[in-house]
Amino acid sequence: MSRNAILHIVLLAATIAAPLLFPAYNAFLATLWLFIIVALTWDMTGGQMGYNSLGNIFFYGTGMYVGAVIAIGMYFPVGEWTDAARSELFLMSPGQYYTGLAVGSLGAGIFCALAALIIGALTFGLRGPYFAIGTLGVAIAGGEIVSNIEWLGGGQGISMPNPPGDFDSFKVLIYYLFAGLGVVLFIFLRWFYQTRFAAAINAIRDDEEKAEAMGIHTLRYKLVTWAIAAFFVGIAGSISAFQLIHFEPLETAYQTINLGIFMVVCVLLGGKGTLWGPVIGAVIFHVFKEVTWNYFLGGQWIALGALIVVIVVFFQGGLMGFFRRRFPEWFGVRVETKGATETAS
C-alpha cells in the first residue's frame, strides 16, 4: 500500500473518530469542515479557472433560505411560520425534521446550481477585478433583497424547528453532515482535476483567448464549474441553517465581510490551484481565528488583517507554493545536486 493511500486512510479514520474523541469541540470541528468546503469550492473558480469571485457567499446564504423554506413548507405555511406575531405553535416530529433536513439540503444545492447558471451568464462577461466586484454586488444585493421580504421573515430572519433529541447528539449529527459533504467534495475534486474538463478550465485560467481559439466553449465550462461549486456551497448553507436554528439575512446568511472573505483567505493561505492547498489553509486559518477570538478579544480583526498582509506579501503562492519551491522532492520533482551532475559528467 502506498504512503498516499495510508495517509488518506488515516485522515478518514481521524475524521470519523474526531467527534467521539473530542466531544467538547464538535462545534469547532463542524465549522472547520464548513471552511474546508467553502475554500475548496471557491478554488474551483478562483484557483483552477482564474475567476476570483467575491460572491460565493450568495450561494451560502441562498442555500440557508432555500433549505429552510423547503423544510418548513413541506409541512406548514411558510408565511405563518415566519410571522413574528403568530400565536399558533408549530411542532415537527422527528421524522418530519430529518426529512426536511435531507430534502431541504438537496433542494438548496440544486437551486443554487441553477442560480449560478443564471448569474454566471450575466457576470462571466466581466473579467479580473470587474468580475470580483460584480459578484460581490450580487451577494450584497441578495442579502438586501431577502431582508425586505416579509414572507421570509424580513430583517429578523427565520427560526428553524428545534432539533429532536438532546443537543449533544445533534451537534455530532451536524459534524458528520459537514464532514461527509467535505469528504465527498474532496473525492470528487480529486477525480475532477484529472479530467479533460479540468484541463479546459486550466486553459481558461492561463489564457482565455487562446483557449477560445483552440475551440473551447469557455462560457459553457465556466458556467458548469461555478454551478458545481454552488451546488456544494448551497448544501453547506442549508446544513448551517439547521445548525444555527435561527439566522438573519445580513449578519448570518449573506455575511460578505466574514465568511465571504474568510473562504478567499483560506485559499490564499494554503495555495490557489491545488487540491490540498484550500484544505491546509482552512485548517490553519480556522485555528488562528479561534485562538485570536478567544485570547485577543478586541484585537482579533487586527490579527486577521495582519495575517492577510503576511500572506499577500510573503506567501503569494500560499504554503503549498512555498513548500514546492523549498522542498520540490516532496512533490515528486527530482532535483539533481551540483556534485551529482559533476560526477555523472
Describe the protein.
- This protein has 345 residues and is an all-alpha fold.
- It has a domain at 28-261.
- The protein is 72% helix and 1% strand.
- It has helices at 3-21, 26-46, 57-73, 78-82, 94-123, 129-146, 167-192, 196-206, 208-213, 218-244, 249-253, 259-270, 276-295, 300-314, 318-326, 338-344, and strands at residues 158-159, 246-247.
- A two-stranded antiparallel sheet has the order 1-2.
- Helix 3 (57-73) runs antiparallel to helix 5 and helix 13 runs antiparallel to helix 14 (300-314).
- It is globular.
Sum up the structure in keywords.
16 helices, globular, mainly alpha, two-stranded antiparallel ribbon, 345 residues, 2 strands
